Amino acid sequence: MSKSLSTRHSRYIGAMAVPVHALLATVLALLTAVAQATVGLTEIEGIAPDGPVTIFFPSKSETQQVHRSSIQMDVAWNGAPVRGNGRLIVISHGSPASPWVYADLARALVEAGFVVAFPEHLADNYKNDSEPGIPSWKRRPLEVSRAIDVIGRDARFGSLLSLDKVGMYGMSAGGHTALTLAGGRWSPAQLLRHCESHIAEDFHACVGPSIRLTGGFIDSLKTRIALGMIRGKLSDEAWYSHTDPRISAIVAGVPFAADFEMESFAAIRVPLGIVTARADRWLIPKFHSDKVLLACPTCIRVADLENGGHGALLSPLLPNRSGPIADLIDDPSGFDRARVVPDLNGKIASFFQKHLPLPR
Question: Which domain holds residue 290?
Fold first, then answer.
């Protein structure tokens, strides 16, 4: 981190001069293998001081019902991996989330042939949420890089993957990680400037979910107190960045983006897709995802969820939700989760299939 993809005559493709019929045979074999595979699940130890890395992968083992955090999944726990398409996608979870609320996306990616890995972000996860925000944002990109390292060294997965081109997805705070790894740079003081100008409009991004503006007479007091506290925490003018040359395609879902220097997105080096949600009340699109799209001429809007809230990208949602976070991630009235979410996951998988070519 600095503060800073016959005819009678063979046709050939690329520098390796691969005949079309041979390429097609390879692709067909891959598709057959993936179609017959199950979804495996395992956990490997991270590189100290990192937490564990959770991995979903194509497997040849039978599935069973596995429960994690009140979520039930049909997976092959510690199953035998099989080669899929040879590519890895790392997912950076939101704050303070778990891999389990991205299980449907992970399954869609595995069914497309990918291995999917979730680093557990230190002190900003469902087990320990003691250091969200700025401290976590500084660590997260490096935790993603080390997750790639540890998977490459693992005896079960290292030989099945080509890590020269890795995909990366992040949502919410994980979207912040994605934007950083895409080449964006951010500053705590930039967030302070945003909050001083827009705290009433973007209150939850500046303050968090636990306090709300209700339209009552004490809202002005809440904003003054919040700004006083923010000024004490966000005085750091340094710019933070971290990229990894192995990461070659990125999707940021409803990312936290108000603290980024938007000019840093003008010439990013990798394909960057953005998922937006019009009914997101936690990270208002015009201050976050839409702002990145306006600043980034090469960015692609993977999906725009017209009636999606902040939690539209989480699937499955945890049952028995309550409290302010539940209010911000629950689906708005009329949101068709059964239709929208599978379609969204398919679009994300298609993005990575397009931008992560099969290993030679």
Answer: 37-186+239-319+337-355
